[in-house]
Fold:
Amino acid sequence: EHEDQRKLGFLWREVYGDKKSESATSAVKSTSEGIVRCLNCAEYISSLGPQSLDHPKWDVVSNNAAIENDQYVYKIFDNRYQPTYAKPANWLQNEHPWIKHLNVESPLLFQESDSVEVLGEPTKKRQREWHSPSKTPYPKGSVQIIRYDYLNGTHFATKASHFKVIADWITKMHEQDIIHGDIRGFNMLHPHPDPEQGGIKQSCLIDFDLSGTPQDVYPPGFSSSVIENSLPRAGKENSKMKKSDDWKELASAMAPYTVDRTESKKTSDAW
Structure:
């Protein structure tokens, strides 16, 4: 068996065993946790050898994103067990100014293929729309990975003007008839309050998984609230996306802040 086949077989394998009562979501979660354990183990083993840039440092920051050496962010879009509803194509529109500075590329796009060797008996797979027969037990679908430049910033604004910059980015998106669809505190990056920490000089938007047009709808399961926004989400699952939703969400993200105007006007920009 070739090296590439082993890698793809691991990437594509299902969870086997006596887990008939386990939901597809739980199966994906347990598999993802297993992969994270493998990454942690690999990182530990590499730390025992000579220190070198050949041994990358990985920080797993969410269930579908990891940072390599504070240099690149990798996001995975796994559409095998159930639809992700996230849209990796949104990230690859590098002609847009709100994405261009990220230098996004897609190093992996792997779709269900009969060429992958069968590793075991299939578990029950969810129904799919197409009817072409498959000779493999693996769930149909696709896995895509995108990579973009890591930005050194903070999710917490320290100046009122930071949100003015965010508003400018939202305006640019709306001028192109594009709705961000997920404006929240953790989907913004702001400059560090201490210049010595370096990093970005201007606030920006990140995470374009759910961006769409006024003809699109919010996906099933769209959260009705997020911890860092003060108000319930403006958008509702299965409802049409509206530009006004982005502005309501920006207001909700700004609500926890207050401006300190007790000092001179020169410092009135500080929270």
Residues 215 and 240 are 7 Å apart (CA to CA).
